[in-house]
Amino acid sequence: MKYQFPENFWWGSAASGPQTEGAADVDGRKPSIWDYWYEIEPGRFFNGVGPKNTSNFYYQYKEDIALMKETGHNSFRTSIQWSRLIPDGIGEVNPKAVEFYNNVIDEMLKQGVEPFMNLYHFDMPLSMQEKGGFESREVIEAYVTFAETCFKLFGDRVKYWFTFNEPIVPVEAGYLYDMHYPNVVDFKRAAQVAFGTTLAHAKAVKAYHALNLDGKIGIILNLTPSYPRSQNPADLRAAHIADLFFNRSFLDPVTRGEFPSDLVEILRERDFLPNYEPEDLEIIKENTVDILGVNYYQPRRVKAKENMPHPDAPFMPEHLFDNYEMPFRKMNPYRGWEIYEQAIYDIAINLRDNYGNIPFFISENGMGVEGEERYRNSDGFIEDTYRIEFIESHLKWLHKAIAEGANCHGYHLWTFMDCWSWANAYKNRYGFVEVNLDENYKRTVKASGKWFKTLTSQNGF
Ligand code: BGP
Is position 3 within any domain? Predict the structure, then answer.
């Protein structure tokens, strides 16, 4: 075997509650912003498919966890839906939700699949959005109470906790680029939401550590390295600025306890600094993470700005750099994302050299493909060799980083089984396991799922 991974490496996949559970208005759950947005603007979702039923995990979790075992998982991440556990955001805990999450956790442990639990995957309860989402102190406190409730209910068995998945996504998609509800386009408000999320995160970390449970807590960040077009100082500066906005805005405060000073300067000059109390900065400083989850899909390529933005256009990070399309880049045409495997190595080395070699794992990586049914073979399963190649080529670079001292503890694919993906709904499929929506959510393991079993049983390839 050429690529052997460290002992006890976490092999598995990731998903989230809102994208897989379905049962949106069952057993006391109340709407999140996704249910509401779909109700008022169904046309914003691919093929008009909303979040109500997603992949039926609420009813099929036993079968699904058995398939995790069958495909060689030793770990799996999902999330607890705030809108299921505390349906009004604040107040009563829903006993049906406690029962469901207990069942899932216990079943995973029974099958030898370590549960990794995330607390927020873009799914703000509607009642909390109405109070201002993470612009509101009340909502920040409600989130911390929700997190603490989860630690107390499930922390005896769940040893790996994550406060947020890709916290920058609701900021940029919901408050800058009109991709998610509430479809606000306002940089100052985006900055306030980013700050509020960071504070909610730090307070949840503090609450977890105060309980002295035997486990670790972290956050999951989507890190997209910024590669400059050239070594021209203007291109280098542009890449540095993109890195500040999209990576270091969260990476620095959660690991080092401080926002990058040059990012603060960019915001101060434009009067975009969020409101905060001096003690907020203390809380962020003192409550850094034990572990980091890294989601990596695509690199960002950047060049110096070519034209002045229109003076009336609302401020965007792209007013300070241009995105750059490298000629002959390798693309995933379905998702429109560049495939650049070396970035996974560059991220790992950056964490090693500039972030104290913090323990991390790849918490999402994967390839979304449209129309996968065309790859079904005569045995009735999808022959997704492109996915196997995608994973292998990323793992080679990850292996190299580990050999050079990067502190990486695992690799989770996005995702276990095909799931609903926000505005893209079921357009691109990412799973080891096919979910057939026309045949009552029938699950069929793809070639990649079978291959993963072999990979994980050998701990390498
Ligand atoms: C990540 C999210 C996941 C999932 C994935 C694929 O950013 O954490 O929730 O959605 O991207 O997304 P898409 O279907 O848009 O390609």
Answer: no
pLDDT tens-place string over residues 163-199: 999 999 999 999 999 999 999 999 999 999 999 999 9
Establish whether residue 431 lines the binding site of ligand 1, counting it when its CB lies within 6 angstroms of any ligand atom: no
State how far the Cα of 165 lies from the Cα of 142, in Å rounded to an integer: 18
Kindly report whether the global pTM for this prediction surpasses the value 0.85. yes
Look up residue 3 and give its two tokens: 């690529």
User: What separation in Å is there between the alpha carbon of 402 and the centre of ligand 1?
Assistant: 26
By the 8 A CB rule, do 280 and 199 touch? yes
Around 194, how many Cα atoms within 13 Å sit in the side-chain half-sphere?
A: 31
Range of the structural domain that residue 49 is part of: 10-458
Number of domains within the chain: 1
Contact 204, 119 (CB under 8 A): yes
In a domain, 51, yes or no: yes
Residue 1 pLDDT class (50, 70, 90 cuts) = confident
Q: How are beta strands 442-445 and 433-436 bridged, if at all?
A: antiparallel
pLDDT per residue as tens digits for the range 349-379: 999 999 999 999 999 999 999 999 999 999 9
At 420, the pLDDT band (50, 70, 90 cuts) reads: very high
CATH code for the domain of 449: 3.20.20.80
- Does residue 4 sit within a domain? no
Cα-Cα end-to-end distance for the chain: 6
3-state SS assignment for residue 148: helix
Annotation marks residue 439 as catalytic: no
Question: Looking at residue 17, what is its pLDDT?
Answer: 98
Q: Let me know if residue 121 belongs to a domain.
A: yes
Protein residue with least CA distance to atom 6, ligand 1: 421
Mean pLDDT across 59-71: 98
